[in-house]
Amino acid sequence: MANAPTCIKMEAPFLSLLPIKFRMDFHQSHFTSKLFLSNNRSNLVNFKCFSVKNKESHKSQTGFSVLNADIDCDIWTILCNMAFYIFSMHVPLSFGGLSVIANTLNQRVLEPQVEALSIFSIQTIELLTVLLLLNCPIEPRYKLLDFFKGSTLSEERNWLLASAAGFLFLVFLVFLTSTIADQLLGPKEVNNPIVNELLSSSSISGTLCVLVYCVVTPLLEEIVYRGYLLTSLSGTMNWQKAVLVSSIIFSASHFSAENFLQLFIVGTVLGCSYCWTGNLSSSVLVHSLYNALTLFLTFISR
Q1: How far, in Å, CA of 153 to CA of 156, rounded?
Q2: What is the pLDDT of residue 156?
Q3: What's the predicted TM-score (pTM) here?
Q4: Can you spell out the DSSP letters for 151-168?
Q5: Mean pLDDT per segment of 10 residues, for the chain of length 302 residues?
Q6: What is the pLDDT of residue 74?
C-alpha cells in the first residue's frame, strides 16, 4: 500500500488476484436502425444512429453469433464515446478516487474498512453514472433491459450452460497462459496483500470486497465493454473482429502492461459468451464466477 495519499490507487478488480494480476455493449439481436425523415418525402436526410427494439423485424449474423448486425453507426463515434467514458470517468474514479478520499480524511493510509467502503462507493458511482449515460442521446442508443432478454434467435441456446462452459474454458486458458508465463518470465506473486487485507481484516470489509469484485464490477464492465461496445462494433464489422477489438480496449483500459495478454483472453472469452447467447447475463455470470475464484485463491494463499 502506498505511503502517501497521493500514491494511493484503487486496484482494478481483475488485477493482482492470480499468478498474473487481474482487474459495458448491449444485446442487440433484435434492434433495428430508426431513420428520421425530413418533410421532403422524396429524399432521405438526417440519418441518426438510433437503435430501438423491434420485435417483428430483426436481422442477425448467422452461425456462432446471434448479435444484430443492423446497427449502422460510424466506428469513430463508438470509439469517441468509449474514450470519453474511459478518460473522463473510469480513470479519475478508479485510479484517483482513493487518493481524493485519503486527502479529504487527512490520512496517509486508509483503514481497511474505510478503504473497502470507499472502493465499493467509487465502483457504485461509476456504475450508476454509466446507467444514467445510457439514457442520454448518445449514438447508438440502447435500452438496458434488452441486454438481458435474449432474442428469438437465441432461445434454443441455454445461457446457463454456456456460462458454465465459458467459465471452465476461461479458467483453463488463464491457468495455461499463467504457467507458460511463469516458465518464460519467472513466477509471480500469487498473494495480493491489499486485497488479502480487505478480505481478512473484518467481516464488513470482506463483504464489501466480495460485493465489489463479484457483483458491481462484473455488471459495470459487461454493460460497457460487451453490452455497449461489442454490440455497437458488431454493426460495423464481423463478430470475430468485434470481439478482438472490444477485448483489446477492455484490456488496455486496465492500464497494466504485464497483464494485458491475460486480460485480453478474459475479454475474448466473455465476448464469445455474449455473442453466442445474445444474453448479457451469460458474460456477467462468467465474470462474477471468475472474480470469485480469484478472490478465493487470494484469500487461501496467505
Answers
A1: 8
A2: 74
A3: 0.78
A4: -TTSTTS-HHHHHHHHHH
A5: 41 36 35 36 36 39 75 86 94 93 91 94 96 79 78 75 96 93 77 84 93 97 96 91 97 92 96 94 97 92 74
A6: 85
Distance CA 149, CA 144 (A): 10
* Dihedral sign from CA coordinates of 28, 251, 179, 197: negative
Q: Please, are residues 141 and 230 in contact by the beta-carbon 8 Å criterion? A: no
Rounded to whole angstroms, how far apart are CA atoms 217 and 126? 9
> Using CA atoms, how far apart are residues 133 and 127, in angstroms rounded to an integer?
10
Distance of CA 239 to CAs 167, 187, 233, 261, Å?
A: 20, 35, 8, 20
d(CA 51, CA 43): 21
- Between CA 62 and CA 206 the distance in angstroms is 44
* Cα radius of gyration (the chain): 20
What is the amino acid identity at position 148?
F
Question: Could you write out the DSSP letters of every residue in the chain?
Answer: --SSGGG--PPPTTSSSSSS--------TTEEEPP---S-TTS-------EEE-SS---B--SS---B------HHHHHHHHHHHIIIIIHHHHHHHHHHHHHHHT-SS--HHHHHHHHHHHHHHHHHHHHHHTTSS-SS---GGGGGS--TTSTTS-HHHHHHHHHHHHHHHHHHHHHHHHHHH-------HHHHHHHHH-HHHHHHHHHIIIIIHHHHHIIIIIIIIIHHHTTTS-HHHHHHHHHHHHHHTT--GGGHHHHHHHHHHHHHHHHHH--HHHHHHHHHHHHHHHHHHHHHT-
What is the model's pLDDT at position 151?
63
